[in-house]
Amino acid sequence: MTIEKYSSQMIDDLCNKIDNDLVEFWKNYREELDLHDTLFDCVNSVFEDFFQGKTGKEDLKEIQKSVAKVCDQKKRRLLKKAQTDGEKYEISDKKNPFHRIYEEKEFLSATQWKQLYDGKTIEEVVKARLEAVENWKSQKAYIVQCPIFEVLRKSGRRDAFYQDLFMNIADIINRDYDGNIRLFFVSSPDFLSQVPVISPEGKRKIVTEMTEQGVYEYLVSNTEGNYQVRYIAQNEDGSLKTFDERDRQILNFIVSNVKENFAQSKSVRFNMGDVARYLYGSSRISEQHVRDIEIRLKNMISLQLEYRMDNREMVFNLFQSYTAIKEDLEGKKKGSNVEIVFSDMLFEAVEQKALIQVKTKEYNELEMPLSKNIFYILQKERISLTEQNSKKLSAEYDYLFFARRIAFQKGQKKNMSLLKTSLEEFKSKGIVVKDYKINKDKFYIEYVPLTENEKADWIEYKN
């Protein structure tokens, strides 16, 4: 499975992180080397030419390894040219890599030469330049920073810039996105934001009624009808482990690691340590972290949900099977790798791209579990209103709008207070919500307009 178009938001984010030396090179040589007119287009072309639709961590490793090899070969050739051709050809010969110094000596006045090279002889300047090339090769430096870079042909210099740019982008992706381009977003299946199955308070329980068959029923009655969620799962201690936001984060990691054969296998393989590092942001992952993830994954398989509201009914789970892989995978520790087979409903959501995406950076800025929970709901509303060409991105909602999508605990008054605090967090941080008002059980929400890059990712691409 590949992505046909790379995120405009991600490319814009990368543009703000590109090494300043490369940015300055692009500014100075844009016209001379026929580089793209904007840095955005330069980065976009790197994805098209180097990544070619690939997104995964292992894909990036292979591409980076290949490009690094090409860059190293080019650096060795430049060093060899400085060392051998500098002796082979007279400095007055254009084939000599230090010929430009000769031209400067010929055409600059004595005063200009002295100002430029502090009165050194041409031999001393050439020697210093050769030492600079040797020093450049011994360090981790860009090709464009080579002291004799001008000896390359125009096409070679242009290629070198884009190769350097790729290596810089790859370093940023490894640093900020854990090597996985898709982790720029946190993605959640749309259907999870249509039913109340995620607990907003960071707790893994819900007000329930247990039947003899181990079926837990969550029933809410209101003036508009009844809706019911049945959780078919029973734990050893008699409690119900429903989903919380941590489960959704695990799901995002798994969805973000689908490979090209996903359409045939409906499965994803991954290392448990990688999931733990994604969740906890630490290189020192304990067995307790891994065990917790394992329990949650198995719970996602055993927990079947039935949702009924008026004339609508949904029955689903998230995964079909969990397999601990005994053999080594990519040199990882035995037993720490897992294969998950998706349920049909989740598989269809991923294949049809029926996912709600939010920026990982904004998601991580939110502190309230409820805010993380309703982020997807508000994002979907924001995009939908934009698609309708609404002049003002605003809408009115009642309490039931949220209650039908969030597994609240009992107590409407308490939940209304939580919603108000959550909306205030969004507004204060400038995420999704521009302003809001609350009147009794009514919420009036005005959304932050989508940027052009957001429209390109979430509206134009979809259409």
Description:
About 30% of the residues are buried. With about 475 residues, the protein is α+β, with helices and mostly antiparallel strands. The protein has a 5-stranded antiparallel beta sheet with strand order 3-4-5-8-9. A 3-stranded antiparallel beta sheet has the order 7-11-10. It has a 3-stranded antiparallel beta sheet with strand order 13-15-14. The chain starts with 7 loop residues before the first helix and ends with a helix. The protein has helices spanning about 10-15, 20-30, 40-50, 55-90, 100-105, 110-115, 120-140, 155-175, 245-255, 260-265, 270-280, 285-300, 345-350, 360-365, 370-385, 400-405, 410-430, 450-460; strands at about 185-190, 200, 210, 215-220, 225-230, 245, 265-270, 305-310, 310-315, 320-325, 335-340, 355-360, 395-400, 435-440, 440-445.
Features:
463 residues; 5-stranded antiparallel sheet; 3-stranded antiparallel sheet; 48% helix
How would the blueprint of this fold be written?
Blueprint: H1 8-15, H2 20-29, H3 39-51, H4 57-88, H5 99-107, H6 110-117, H7 122-138, H8 154-176, E1 185-189, E2 198-199, E3 209-210, E4 215-222, E5 225-232, E6 243-244, H9 245-255, H10 262-265, E7 267-271, H11 272-280, H12 287-302, E8 304-309, E9 312-316, E10 319-325, E11 337-342, H13 344-351, E12 355-359, H14 360-365, H15 369-387, E13 394-398, H16 399-403, H17 412-428, E14 433-439, E15 442-447, H18 452-460
Parallel strand pairs: 2-6
Antiparallel strand pairs: 1-12, 3-4, 4-5, 5-8, 7-11, 8-9, 10-11, 13-15, 14-15
